Amino acid sequence: MLSLATLALAAGARFAPTIPRIEPYLEAARGRTLDAMRARKIELPADFLAWVDKTPIVRDTVYGCRKDPLPVLLALRSLEIDLGEDMVRRDYTQLALAFALQDSYAARGAQGTGWNDADGAKAPEALPDVSPRPRLELVVPADPRTPVDTKSTARALDKFDHIINFLEDHAPIEVETEVKELPPLEYDDKGIAKPQGKAVTVKKMVARPLYGADVIASAALQAEFNAYMAAHGFADVSIDCGDKVVFWKATEMVNDPGQKKRIADAHDLFHDAYRAKGRMPAERDRAPTASESMAWFIRNDRWAFSDADRAARGWPRFPLNAPWPVLMMLAADDQPLREREEIWARFRDTGEFRTYGEYIGGIAQQFDMQSARRVAPLAFNYGSIQMMWKDGGVCGTMGNIGARTHRIVGTPAATAGQPGHCALVVMGYDAKTKQYRCFGEQYATGGDEVTNVHAGWNYDDVGGRRGMIWHQTVAWGVNDDFDAFVDALAMRRVWDAMPADEQARECVKLVDQGLARNPFAITLVDAAIAAAPDARTVLAVLEAFNRRADEIAKDKQYALYLTTVRDLAHARIERLPAPATQDETAKLLETLERQGCTNAALLARCWRALGGDDEFVARCKSSVEAYLAAPDRTKDRRAAQKFANQVRELAKQVKGPAKRRWAEQMLGYFKDNETITIRGKAMVDPAVEELRKLAAVKPATKQAAK
What we know:
This protein is of the alpha+beta class. About 50% of the residues lie in helices and about 10% in strands.
């Protein structure tokens, strides 16, 4: 059998737009996989292997999308054993492929960390189980709590018994709460009741049992609790949290270290008592297996909604027979089934779809304080949506509630990071156009250009996180040509197996011919840029990309894709050795400026190579002047923020005390232009704010600070 390197070279030599499959590599990968199975004495049914071989998209995915296809193949077979042949081979093949690829990461140990441990030794295998077993019967676990009799006479009561007894024997307290009520009935002049309106939310005082949170909030209750515990032989159990420092509706952070510790200890005391006596689960439910998760989604997908309920819920929210690349975020969901089931039941039975919770302010930055303010009995543990609903939070909590709820109703989604903010991203589907798209929700500090998706980039052997545009190219690539998109992933595997010197020679061809198959194959573009040995080759790769992307460039929705690839290329040039002569530097700078380069380090290097620090300052001044003259400055805050980011990066190119002097000089160019007005609202230009920080300059007047 030919070696992988030989096959990769062969495949690389015959890259062409007309190649429908990367046959030599796929055949070699298949052979390696079967050899590995024989070495481990693993046997799979012949008809299963034949089905994989004769179904092109399955074959290409299994053998072409991971360096080691064995975990993928075994995961796919494991799903078939648990769920049945029809589910995997006929009804939900794409969903099964998504789960198999996602599950193959689990076979590597930590997701996205690579194959080797810290010592360089090969990580122990954790291959999917393909042993014979009965068909999976989906069971959603019941509430695991078993309440303990805290007044039992058959044993000596411990401190947790007495803590629970204090709380549960205490007189109920009255609290304000929001409830939904139907409006009162109204009658017409004939005494016939008029149609009743929809339920409205009203605030009412209701009685409820005493919670640990109530004791933490009240100095009087703390004294009562301490006396109770002492009277029952536990004088050492005493809490001192102050009066209304942390309480049910608290939003302020606690700054006193001693007080924070006392409140945290009190939380742990009540929390431990609730868990020990069965008022809360002892631990969070386990994550489901891939088979359990897939079975749960399929059960819901087949739910017999009425036509009216289907329309009201927009059901199905996302097709589970969609191409597997757009299902990966869904397959990554590891929420325990019991947690999912309660949210699903609310959606199924009433149409409830809550993607947000209670925003609680600064105290959310202190997990112990946030937890203490509402510690109470609950059927779910920390980490669950149910606990997030009870405790509230800030953007991270809201993003998690939103992304998890989307996934629970079958829509791929994930949280995403923005500067100082957590948002979420969703895979959507338009049934009319049959097009997929990846879009953001709960954005706050920028658009797609500053959004990094928290879902793993599970389309290669690296994993990790990528910017929003990477996940958007998945949807666009599937829309353009699903088969070709998977081919591009396989081509990347071929490319990775090629020697570095061969990659350096073929990187332009990879982009030119790979994007001829699918213009959204960013993984190939990224690989080619990384392999380019010098600035000239990087620019040739970028030129090949722009040539192939010429058609899609006409559509504004792809603008970020084009600039992202440009920025990848410029970042590669910045890491490579600088041009040897000023003439070469001048030509490079001319090209970079024509391409709209925003890489401050690269630009600064070129400016200084041409004229030292004086040239650097002059070019910075020109950048400010061009920005001030740009019409976008007062139309879109993102344009202003983008320049502020550029200012921040330029500042990094100035070292020591000179940085402050540089910032003061740049501020001078903004004289009489410190503010911008967007949609009728005046604000300090973000670039000015950045320069003021660097120069340690305070606003001249209050008006200027508005």
